[in-house]
Amino acid sequence: MAITEDEARKVAHLARIAVKDADLPALAQELNGILHFMEQLNEVDVEGVEPMTGVEPMRLKRRQDIVTDGEMQALILKNAPDAREGFFAVPKVVE
Amino acid sequence: MSDLNKLTIAAARDGLRKGDFTSLELTEACLSAIEGAGVLNAFVHNTPERARQMAAAADSRIAGGDAPAMCGIPLGIKDLFCTKDVPSQAASRILEGFLPQYESTVTQNLWDAGAVMLGKLSMDEFAMGSSNESACYGPVVNPWKVDDRQLTPGGSSGGSAAAVAADLCLAATGTDTGGSIRQPAAFTGTVGLKPTYGRVSRWGVIAFASSLDQAGPMTKSVRDAAIMLGAMASVDPRDSTSAERPVPDYEAALTGDIRGKRIGIPREYRMEGMSDEIDALWHQAAEMLRDAGAEVVDITLPHTKYALPAYYVIAPAEASSNLARYDGVRYGRRAKLGAGDGVVEMYEKTRAEGFGPEVQRRVMIGTYVLSAGFYDAYYNRARKVRALIKRDFDQVFADGIDAILTPATPSAAFGLGEMSGKDPVEMYLNDVFTVTVNLAGLPGISVPVGLDRQGLPLGMQLIGRPWDEGGLLNLAQSLESAAGFTAKPSRWW
């Protein structure tokens, strides 16, 4: 499987990273190099093997369904690049 | 008293308790060492005032007579740990100006034990790298130097390793996703321990690959690693993967008796093109353990070869998901927008200027292997291979092996800039001996064992059974004392 320039553009967009058109060929080539390296995995017989999801067989912890945290709007907004009237502000989304 | 910064944690603890010196004196010694070591570029956010306050508080606690071992010990903290009101930016431009409003569990545990924060240490951006060259602060320089080249301290915990090796602090925190504690420890002649996955809380540690990340101590001795792990580890309800296991006394596990322990030597780790020096040192290390009463056994871990490619599918996949949060909305940097730019342009421009090239590359690779049509071919296949890698280890431990001995790195520290312009995959090969341990969730420790012909340190890795950090540290200390590694970088900075 080789990544074309068009696919590199698509991946960059899915990852929400702006890439200049002029940089796409080099990006596609780099990604192809890495994918080629990963292709060694095709040599392994994985028939009947369950994909590993966690290191230890453990159940996710449960706790009482109660509020343990909150009331910290000012702390949460403190690092926002643009916060107004108690909200995160972003460029207009809906026309 | 001079040179207090050169002490180990154990020696400082004993001296503090005896009243030979104060934590304030110890802290001042570290602060002046840091001031004189700007050229190493290890400390990137200094907190001297806070350090003095914490030291004074530790001194009164020690005077009270019941202070824990870490009380009054000055530490460096990797930039990946969120520390309240102190810059914590994972060495990335995208987190410029970020001041966490909370404290990571690990650092909170250390402060609760009375430790002193000297400042934050550089690292590879988002812990992705093996040379510390991808930090937004510029590369960290290894205090070890044998010619006119400047060497890498390794990565990603390169700032931590350089700071400990240069005696700028008594010890430092590190994190390890594919070797990021053990490789820099090996490159700087220091000790680095990656605990079993789930032993140390990940809460408040900026996430790279959540199923692999684990924090651990970087120290001047194995005993120090035992002491510091005891303070870092905890059962944490805020981390759903934190193990419900009490934290044992790791220092008490250092009995010096390793008779009858079975040490495995995996034949698959004898890589083609491995330097003869590392091979010879590996043999010597096995001899040292045998002389101390251990039994050395040849073992096989047949899927070793596939660990690196599996890792470079899984880690970027998790990273692409974890790093989606850096969107210019909630914290950190937002790009300057042009007229008419919408929210998508904001995301794309922010991430393009905020992430460095290696982070961008991994986020995109991760996005690709998780995208529709490729998920099974890459991501699921890699997770199945990961299960087989873990099964290899399970088998060996079930056969009665107590620990596994391997080299920590395929070479000694290389020069800064030597790998730039090369294929990214070549840099990835640095992790060849260490990634298997993260994939299987095991504890691993790097111990300095000798110098190569150029005079640079080389480390050996011991891999332990899950949750057996105590047994692993005991073996590591036996290796440490047999190797008698006492070399230090001579001061040129």
Q: Name the beta content range of chain A.
A: under 5%
Average pLDDT of chain B, rounded to a whole number, is: 96
Strand/helix succession of chain B: HHEHEHEHEHEEHEHEHHHHEHHEEH
Using the CA coordinates, give the radius of gyration of chain B. Answer: 21 Å
Estimate percent helicity of chain A: 25-40%
Strand arrangement, major sheet of chain B: 1-3-2-4-6-5-10-11-9-7-8
Q: Compute the number of helices of chain B.
A: 15
Fraction in beta strands of chain B:
5-15%
For the termini of chain B, the CA-CA separation is: 22 Å
**Quaternary structure state of the chains depicted:** heterodimer
Calculate the terminal CA-CA distance of chain A, rounded to whole Å.
40 Å
Structural class of chain A: mainly alpha
Which pair has the most extensive contact? A-B, 52 and 74 residues
Largest sheet of chain B: 11 strands, mixed
- Structural class of the helix and strand makeup of chain B? alpha/beta
Describe the structure.
The complex is a heterodimer of chains A (95) and B (493). Chain A is built from three helices and two strands, in the order H-H-H-E-E. With 95 residues, chain A is mainly alpha-helical. In chain A, strands 1-2 form a two-stranded antiparallel sheet. In chain A, helix 1 crosses helix 2. The model of chain A has no long low-confidence stretch (mean pLDDT 91). The relative contact order of chain B is 0.14. Chains A and B meet through helix 1 and helix 2 of A and helix 9, helix 10, helix 11, helix 12 and helix 13 of B.
Offer a few descriptive terms.
heterodimer, A: about 100 residues, mainly alpha, two-stranded antiparallel sheet, 3 helices, about 30% helix, about 5% strand, B: about 500 residues, alpha/beta, eleven-stranded mixed β-sheet, 15 helices, 11 strands
